[in-house]
Amino acid sequence: MKNIHHIIFLGAMAAAGPVLAAKSVPLKPAGSPGDWITPNDYPPAALRQSLKGITGFRLNVDPMGHVTACTITASSGSSLLDDTSCALLKARATFVAAQDARGRTVAATYSSAVRWQIPNDTGPAKFTMLSCSFGPPGDIHVVTPQGCAH
């Protein structure tokens, strides 16, 4: 379903022809989300305890593209992994701010998940970003090895 844009024509502008409504611009990660948490970030205590799981999160992002809050939306089952996820994301995640239809930067949210996977004998600890979604709700993107895609 497409949004209907109302256009107001003002005197001289109407004579110049139709005015196209601008589109809003969604929030976009600055860089690759896969770089926000790396295998080197696996908490040593979590490795010793063989803790693993998937941490779902939502980041609140201000109009400057900075993370202002992190909320765990689905626990990995380990407060250590959940807390580590939010601490690293708040410190490292940056965004190109979302814009409204008038081109003004606006606050938005970013939701995704981190898969904490303990290494086996053949490789290092792994972090995988599972999926991305960007505010406004319903605007869903998928993370590929190359980053988030529409």
Notes on the structure:
By secondary structure, the protein is of the alpha+beta class. The protein has one domain. 16% of the residues lie in helices and 35% in strands. The protein contains three helices and ten strands, in the order αβαββαβββββββ. It has a six-stranded antiparallel sheet, covered by helices on one side. A two-stranded antiparallel ribbon has the order 1-4. The longest helix is centred in the middle third of the chain and has 14 residues. It is elongated and about 50 Å long. The two termini are 17 Å apart. The relative contact order is 0.22.
Summary?
The chain has helices at 11-15, 44-48, 79-92, and strands at 28-29, 53-61, 67-74, 95-96, 98-99, 105-106, 108-117, 126-134, 139-144, 147-149. The chain is α+β, with helices and mostly antiparallel strands and 150 residues long.
Ordered list of secondary-structure elements with their pairings:
Elements lengths: L10 H5 L12 E2 L14 H5 L4 E9 L5 E8 L4 H14 L2 E2 L1 E2 L5 E2 L1 E10 L8 E9 L4 E6 L2 E3 L1
Antiparallel strand pairs: 1-4, 2-3, 2-7, 5-6, 7-8, 8-9, 9-10
Give the strand order, joined by hyphens, for the main sheet.
3-2-7-8-9-10
Number of strands: 10
Q: Give the count of helical stretches.
A: 3
Shape: elongated
Percent of residues in helical segments? 10-25%
Class by alpha and beta content: alpha+beta
- The first-to-last residue Cα distance is 17 Å
**Overall average residue pLDDT:** 77
